[in-house]
# Entry
Amino acid sequence: MESTCIFCRIVKGELPSARVHEDEQCVVIRDIHPQAPVHLLVLPRTHVQSLWELEDEALAGRLLSVAARVARQEGLEKGWRLIANTRDHGGQEVAHLHLHVLGGRPLGRMLPSSGAGD
# Structure
């Protein structure tokens, strides 16, 4: 799977990307089809199919920490959204775990308000 996975190829530098951050565990790139003024993808360097398969707690924490770091770098102090589409029914299009960081404009609510603690 890794040799044909587009995100594995991007992480390895085989395909071009607009990199925002990289370290020993992950790479952050700009999405080529942005859904907001800032739309970044946080990719683990190791191939993990989706959030469903993620068992490495240290990697999970690193991905969240890096998402917050790049959101700050991009000046998203007014707020931002973190999305992990998981598997087919969750809308995942590429079978390599990735987190979407979206911001730069009001994004609105995705779900109806419960009224409790909003």
